[in-house]
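job 3f2a | input accepted
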Amino acid sequence: MSSSDLVYQITATYLKNHYQLSPQKKRHFFYRAYVATKNPDVKTIFFGESKSYTLSWGKQVVTTYQTSLQATIDRIIKTFAEKEIKKINDQYKYNQYLKYPELKAYSSLLKSLLYLDIYGQKPDLSQIKAGPILERLVGNQDFIAWASVAAVNTVFLSKHLGLVDREVAFIASFQKAFSEPKPKDKLWLTNYIYGLTHMIIGDSFYYQLKINPTKFTWILNVFEQYQQEIMTILSLDIQTEVALCFKFLGKADHPLVSQIIARLDQTFDRERGYIRVKETSTLISAEHTNAVALILYNFEQIKLQ
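job 3f2a | predicted structure (305 res):
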């Protein structure tokens, strides 16, 4: 089956079953599906249901953060004290959110601001004191090490949304947090590689902007250094993001890209119409892998600014 056929099948499956997805997962998938395909039915959902959800809930998140930060922090503590552990790093990541809820509160705010920005809604951000928060994040090795993706997203969203730019200092701190290699430790490798993929994705403002192809050469060097571990230890969605990063930096012909695409092809379930990471995978649990796969398959058709 060709890449275009896979993209068509995955998109059709999620369109048919979109009611199964939570509002957050629906928005996550259909944003990426829209970027990758510009499918009119995908556009209808992303600029319909998902936009309504964002304008309602997203604006509420912003307002609550600005007027009652403590209420936001209390909600985060309650949520992550009770949240089910599903993935290998969840317990350690949630512990960081409970220990530093103000960092998670700010991270959640930025996610809402990202989608509001995509929908052309830019609330007044003058009351948000991002500088001190980023200073605490840059100096927090534990949070960076155990909640690496949240940390990276926070830094790059803060920069692109015009709040504060601490990218250089953060990257130095990130490198320090992972300075002791533990390539056989799945937790260490997951946080390290996953965090690195989000530096590149984050610098693209989440699939919107072109990236200087030489800026993150050092990250591709890390991927090459750990390519055996990436292919044997890490999950398929992280592998997919690794391949996507090579494409972002003009290295689509790298052997790791073709290996990962071949793995995606092999895990596509023709009967169900989507990539199944394992036998127990569902449309919902496999959403992230399928969403990122659409971007990877159709990357050359995406018009970055």
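job 3f2a | The two ends are 31 Å apart (CA to CA).
job 3f2a | closed
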